[in-house]
């Protein structure tokens, strides 16, 4: 009887791993259809899956803290762009700078970041979707940004820009940008302290991140758009987001036409 119980337990465990976890075969970070990619969760840093995650990480160039455009000039120039040149690619320094502006670490040896966060709880996660030939030296796919190490981690391979545009009520212009920044929130990181009021704080925070992306793009000679109209569940399925992550913003970035 004891042996039967053990066999049943192991069978159930294998079934759960198959249904919930990303595939253990093929390239690291490739998620199974319909399953959230837990290797791309912020909380996986100290989990048993750390070794798997490390294999799919890519270090980015260090962000620069001085630019040629003043804050005042970037604010004056900022515009929401919906017409991008698909012929102009970005380099990895630009990607690093944009991700750092959205959520990067700004103190040596600490965890303070580029945007204000209620209670320093940091409920946001930032993803960058790279299109075919969108970034020099990066394969097309969805990458998760890890601020503490300034690295990105491959979550899903392939160019998903058209699928994201479809999820955004078929706003096809989104798919022409070389990269698309997607910001998600795990509300419980904030609401566990501030209860229902915490949801408002999260929404304030994503606004800070969005504005930083706008200004950093301008400082790099690029442009950005912003999209809040999308089907949440469709987008979550397309990006294989963890169940507790809610997408809040889509921001295409590139050279405007």
How many independent structural domains? 1
CATH architecture: 3-Layer(aba) Sandwich
Radius of gyration (CA) equals 19 Å
The proportion of residues in beta strands is: 15-25%
Strand order of the largest sheet: 1-4-3-2-5-7-6
Mean pLDDT, nearest integer? 87
Which keywords apply here?
257 residues; 8 helices; alpha+beta; globular; seven-stranded antiparallel sheet
How does this model look, in words?
By secondary structure, this protein is α+β, with helices and mostly antiparallel strands. Helix content is 35%, strand content 16%. It has a single domain, classed as 3-Layer(aba) Sandwich (NADH Oxidase). A seven-stranded antiparallel beta sheet has the order 1-4-3-2-5-7-6, sandwiched between helices. Helix 3 crosses helix 7 and helix 4 packs antiparallel against helix 7. About 8% of the residues have low confidence.
């Amino acid at each position: 009887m004891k042996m039967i119980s053990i066999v049943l337990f192991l069978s159930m465990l294998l079934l759960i791993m198959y249904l919930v976890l990303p595939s253990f075969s093929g390239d690291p970070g490739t998620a199974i259809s319909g399953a959230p990619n837990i290797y791309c969760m912020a909380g996986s840093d100290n989990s048993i899956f750390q070794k798997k995650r490390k294999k799919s990480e890519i270090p980015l160039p260090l962000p620069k803290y001085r630019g040629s455009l003043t804050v005042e000039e970037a604010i004056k120039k900022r515009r929401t762009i919906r017409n991008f040149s698909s012929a102009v690619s970005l380099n990895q320094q630009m990607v690093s700078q944009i991700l750092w502006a959205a959520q990067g670490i700004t103190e040596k040896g600490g965890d303070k970041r580029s945007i204000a966060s209620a209670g320093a709880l940091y409920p946001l996660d930032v993803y960058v979707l790279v299109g075919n030939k969108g970034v020099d030296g990066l394969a097309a796919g969805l990458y998760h940004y890890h601020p503490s190490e300034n690295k990105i981690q491959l979550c899903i391979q392939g160019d998903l820009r058209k699928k994201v545009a479809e999820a955004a009520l078929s706003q096809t212009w989104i798919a022409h940008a070389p990269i698309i920044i997607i910001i998600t929130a795990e509300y419980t990181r904030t609401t566990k302290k501030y209860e229902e009021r915490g949801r408002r704080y999260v929404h304030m925070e994503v606004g800070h991140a969005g504005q930083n992306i706008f200004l950093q793009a301008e400082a790099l000679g690029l442009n950005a758009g912003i999209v809040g109209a999308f089907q949440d569940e469709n987008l979550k399925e397309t990006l294989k987001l963890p169940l507790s992550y809610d997408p809040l913003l889509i921001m295409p970035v590139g050279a405007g036409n």
